Amino acid sequence: MTHEEFVTNIITRISFIVDSASIEQIRMSIYSELSGKEIVEKETLPSTGPVDNEKLIRRFLATKNIEGCSKGTLSAYGFGIRKFAEFLDGFDLKDVTTDMIRMYLGNIASKNQNSYADTIRRYLNSFYQWAENEDIIFKNPCKKIKHIKCEKK
What we know:
Elements: H1 3-14, H2 20-34, H3 53-66, H4 71-88, H5 98-111, H6 114-133
């Protein structure tokens, strides 16, 4: 991956939460930090299969169904988590970071009421807490994200 591709990927990811003047400052800072450095693709073990976020989501929903969640609740969980997976654009849900979730919630909060963003935060927290309990992930990346304050009526 070239420096240009690397920087473009980062700028694309943050462009919806940062103003254009800040983006240029960030772009220049990244180039400055990359100066004299080489970007090397990470070598990973061969995959046991394609990223299957949908299979993971179905396992989570099956667990919630067994726990007694209503069909409406299951549908809401499924919708919220699938929208997050769509935002990740093929990125494995098991490799998500706290910052990725924060960026997503910031994007939602900028377009919706904070109460909706907090609802999505709760869905993701439930999903990742389940994944941690099932030893699918090591640590819940949503754990550090606090309740999103909402305006009182």
